[in-house]
Every structure is written in C-alpha cells, then in structure tokens.
UniProtKB/TrEMBL annotation:
UniProt-annotated binding residues for Zn(2+): 254, 257, 356, 415
CDD domains: Histidinol_dh (cd06572)
Gene: hisD
Family annotation (InterPro entries): Ald_DH/histidinol_DH (IPR016161), Histidinol_DH_CS (IPR001692), Histidinol_DH_monofunct (IPR022695), Hstdl_DH (IPR012131)
Positions that bind substrate: 232, 254, 257, 323, 356, 410, 415
UniProt keyword list: Amino-acid biosynthesis, Histidine biosynthesis, Metal-binding, NAD, Oxidoreductase, Zinc
Active-site annotation: 322-323
EC number per UniProt: 1.1.1.23
UniProt protein name: Histidinol dehydrogenase
Pathway where it operates: Amino-acid biosynthesis; L-histidine biosynthesis; L-histidine from 5-phospho-alpha-D-ribose 1-diphosphate: step 9/9
Catalytic activity, reaction form: L-histidinol + 2 NAD(+) + H2O = L-histidine + 2 NADH + 3 H(+)
Gene3D superfamilies: 1.20.5.1300, Nitrogenase molybdenum iron protein domain (3.40.50.1980)
C-alpha cells in the first residue's frame, strides 16, 4: 500500500467523485430503459430482466409460497443473528422519530409543524450473485418506524428466477409489504412511474450499481430519492498506538466492495505507516475477493503521513468520508474536530463491519464527499413536515400594514390585496 506525505492525494480522490464527469452514452442507455418502462410497463420490465439477468419470468411478484420456501432454507443461526440486528437497528432508529409541535408566540397566534409519514416507498436491494439482507433491514425498518403506508421492495432475481432466501426472510422480518423480482434501471423506472403490476411509490431508497444510481438521478423530481451512492469509502485515523492488524483488516473490508472503493489511512507515525503497509499486503493475499481489493488498494488506497492530528482532521473534513474510524488514543476528546463524515467509529474495537450489520445506526451513508452536506438514512427520510399557521382577526390586524408594505415592495399587488380586503372589514 502506497505511503505518501501530505494531502496531495486528497484532491485526486475528490476528483474521482466529480459529478460533472458524465458519460453521455451511458446516460442515453439509462434514459432509454426508463422511457421503455414508462411506455411499455410490465413487458419492458420482463424483457430487460431476461436481457440483463438472463431470467425469463412469468410473474414479477414474489409469492407467499416462495417466502415460505425461503424460511425453510435459512439456518437457525441466521434467524438469531437477523433478529438480534433487527432489535438493535429498531432501538436506535426509534429515537429518531420526530413529533408534531405547536407554539403560541402571541395571543391569537398558533404556529407549528405537523410531521406525517410518506404514503409509500420503494426499497432497492442489490441481488443476483450476492445477498444483502442487512440492506433490507437498514431500509425497511426506518420506514416501518416512520409509519410509511406501503413498503415495496425490488431486487434482481437469481438465475433460477428466485430471490435469495436470506433477502426474502429479512424482508418478511422487517415488514415489507410487496416484493418484486426486478433490478437495475428498469426497477427504478417501474417504482417511479408504475406498471400494470408494480405500484408507483413516492420515494425510492437503497444502493445499487451505476445503472441504478444514474436512474435514481434521472427520476428524481418525479419521485424523491435518498441519495445517489458512489463507491464505498473508509478513512482510518491512526497514531503510534494503533494496532496495524486491525487497521489493515478494516481498510480491506471496504476495498473488497468495489475496484473504485477508497481505503485511506492518515497517521502521525512513520513506523506505524510502514507496519500497516506490510500488513495490508499480507492480509490482501488471503482475501477471497483479493482481485477486486487489489485494484482498489492500488488505485485509491493510500497511507498519508501527517505532522499532527489537527492536520489529519483537516484532511478528513475535506474528504468527508462515508466511514471514519478514529483508532487513536482518547478518540472522544477529538470528536468535536470532525465536521464531515457519514459514520464515525471510535476506538480500536468499533470496526466498520460492526456498523454494517449489528450496532444499530444505519449503514446507508453519504459517499463521494456528500457527507459534507447530507446524513445517513434514517426515520426522518420517510417523514415529511407541514407548517401550521393560525392567526385570529386581531392578530392579523396587528401585522396587516407590514405585510402590505412588503408585498408592495415586491410589486405583488394581489398579495397586498388579500390583506387589504380583510383590513377593510376590521
């Protein structure tokens, strides 16, 4: 793993995330898929599923029989782990639920905010060769806690036309209402606009490949989305006391995701940097997904040596990483220095993988530097707010002239008149 000094790699990494770099041919393909689903409905979805997934389906809906079959296929150990994760995720996210509120700043005035769950949501869960039951929990449970009326899920079918049993069992445990056998950009289009079988939703959440991410970008505005997820990222801040075995393992846990995943360690210790570089190479050789991880480490993996923790935190805040591990002495004392990060893991025994599965906070996190202005998925993503305004006749009379003055200044005479007609009756 390459060792460098200073922050020059920071800008290189951020350029990787440049959203202005657009592949026009790629966009044309995605838009073509969306247009065909909008015009042809189920038939387009079935055609794309056969073309991209190699599966010819008769029905897009997962049946109760398929769910029952899946329940018989998973182990007791999986059920135990899944329910343990569900309990922790639920406990954490219940604390996020917001309540409506009202206040009376003056006599005759009531102001407030009404908090309401959205009517429907579509959850995208990656599938096909891999299974992500944890993604099901992280998307469905906050929606359930928020009180969403209808929770639909889309996920690509396997070669046999079925959905991975672990994903189906997780969906049932989490309270998903309807599961559809479809993935890719066609799934996003179907959720956004509806087909004969797939009901339209008002918001789409969940990660996916480049086609899914781009499709979410194009349907945004017609429906809401959670975020446009890019390649995974981890940044470890280390000092001379950090265990290099732990740090290497955590860096590789993200590098194995994707060839474009970024694994960065920032350290104040040259000796640690040398040890870590050797340890990454040693562990890399033992990974099942070492080809993917190797490309990730070579392209976007760096050990950055800095003169102080203050310099390290400055780089962290510029990167705004998806996952940040503070594997340093007394990490809580430095928490205030971190402004931009999706999830922050404190100490040497809080690995990123713990957050992916069991700790409780959501693992759907802002990537590509967007942690500078956005947050992890949460219950708040499945709720909306309405302002409440009540003025009595006397309360309106007290501010009527000021409203008219401001409306006149903007040359909006209709606005002013709506006050004047009431003022005339006082």
């Amino acid at each position: 793993m390459k060792i460098i000094r200073g922050a020059e790699f920071t800008e290189e990494l951020l350029r990787r995330n440049d959203s202005n770099q657009t592949d026009l041919e790629f966009d044309r393909n995605v838009l073509s898929i969306i247009d065909q689903v909008r015009s042809e409905g189920d038939q387009a979805v079935l055609n794309f599923t056969e073309r991209f997934d190699g599966v010819k389906l008769d029905n897009l809906i997962v049946t109760e029989e398929e769910i029952n079959e899946a329940e018989q296929a998973v182990t007791d150990d999986f059920y135990r782990a899944l329910r343990s994760a569900k309990e922790r995720i639920t406990t954490y996210h219940e604390a996020q639920k917001e309540q409506s509120w009202f206040l009376n700043p003056n006599e005759g005035i009531m102001l407030g905010q009404k908090v309401t769950p959205i009517d429907s949501v579509g959850l995208y869960v990656p599938g096909g060769k891999a299974a992500y039951p944890s993604t099901v929990l992280m998307n469905a449970l906050p929606a359930k806690i928020a009180g969403v009326g209808r929770i639909s899920m889309v996920t690509p079918p396997q070669r046999d036309g079925k959905i991975n049993p672990y994903v189906l069992v997780a969906a049932k445990e989490a309270g998903v209402d309807r599961i559809y056998k479809v993935g890719g950009a066609q799934a996003i289009a179907a959720l956004a606009y509806g087909t004969e079988t797939i009901e339209k939703v008002v918001k789409i959440t969940g990660p996916g490949n480049a086609y899914v991410a781009r499709a979410k970008k194009w349907v945004f505005g017609d429906v809401a989305i959670d975020m446009i997820a890019g390649p995974s990222e981890i940044c470890v801040v280390a000092d001379a006391h950090t265990n290099p075995i732990y740090a290497a393992a955590d860096l590789l846990s993200q590098a194995e995701h994707d060839e474009r995943a970024a694994a960065v360690c920032i350290t104040t210790s040259e000796a640690f940097a040398a040890e870590l570089s050797k340890e990454v190479e040693r562990q890399l050789a033992e990974l099942d997904r070492k080809e993917i991880a190797t490309q990730s480490i070579e392209q976007f993996g760096r050990i950055i040596i800095v003169d102080s923790l203050e310099e390290a935190f400055d780089i962290v805040n510029r990167l705004a990483p998806e996952h940040l591990e503070l594997m340093i002495d007394q990490p809580m004392e430095h928490l205030a220095a971190i402004r931009n990060a999706g999830a922050i893991f404190l100490g040497q025994h809080s690995p990123e993988a713990l957050g992916d599965y069991m700790a409780g906070p959501n693992h759907t996190l802002p990537t590509s530097g967007t942690a500078a202005f956005s947050s992890p998925l949460g219950v708040y993503d499945f709720m909306k707010k309405s302002s409440i305004i009540y003025y009595s006749e006397n309360a309106l009379a007290e501010v009527a002239d000021d409203v008219i003055t401001l409306a006149d200044a903007e040359q909006l005479t209709g606005h002013a008149n709506s006050i004047k007609v009431r003022k005339a009756g006082y």
